[in-house]
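subagent[fold] <- orchestrator: predict structure for attached chain, return tokens only, no commentary.
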Amino acid sequence: MTDPSHDHDNDPTALVFPGQGSQAPGMGKLVYENSEAARRVFDEASEVVGIDLKAVCFDTNADDLADTSNTQPAVLTTSIAFLEAMREKLAEVGHTVQPRLFGGHSLGLFSAAVAANALSFRDALKLIVERARLMGTLNEERPVGMAAILGLDADTVRTICADATTGDDSRVDVANLNDDTQTVISGDVSALERAMEAAQAVKGKAIRLKVKVSSHTPLSIPQADEFAHFLRDVTFADPVRPIVSNITSDLLRTAADVRAEFEAQLRSPVLWADNVRRMTNEGVTTFIEVGPGHLLARMIKRIAGDEVEAISLDDARDQPIPISILPQQSAS
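subagent[fold] -> orchestrator:
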């Protein structure tokens, strides 16, 4: 239901930011080469994190890039580089994008908070480094993983997870509800493999993800609690426009809202399909994916259909300046 207090004087546009899984070797290189603003983002990120993120993004192979400690700062940095390049190039032609809402998938919500001025880029990087470390600690304690289940509805997948869970030492849960027939599950490898077999037995497709982490389930409660302590030292501000909560699809309007979201995010499922529906209910008709790849744009089209336009800045390959692919009504 549309929020009656919502201000609709801005574009019917949402800027959405991808998360882990969208990374690819070479990501951000074209934008880096063609935007001074993007170069500044990479330089600042490398200084804050203490590693050369250009080398990580441009030269690292897929396996090394998939390491969570590399992936999370690399995806955040590439996304903000796209954002600043878009703003830079639009300013050169006297235009701006005034999004109605910001959204992000898991890690992408940190990029959204930066874009909405709720969190500084430097603080977001520091948080992401800590978040990646904490996610890695769970795999050190017990073998964990994630898998995508395709072709089955969420209720069926929930039942499969419940049946595959045999106790606290072997459990699997729904982590991401990406669209109506794509659900990511996460948990102990033993339970994960049972759930994958059960999904295939009822004609679903199960794809093991190339990550050695588990997130967005109750298994991550200890990591989420530790991350919450880390968040206490970080300054948040009210976002300039609302951010859509991964956890509830509510609109995050205050600094306190954003902080609470990140405190709970690691242990809570990402309700991406509901996020997209909330944005369309708020009047969004154009989604611009800001970051590497086009996973979100494709998911949005599957969720919302032909009623919306969903594009990725990373698809601007013929002219590697992000605004070359923007719908005309979004750059005004």
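orchestrator: received. Logging for downstream: The CA atoms of residues 157 and 174 lie 7 Å apart. The radius of gyration is 19 Å.
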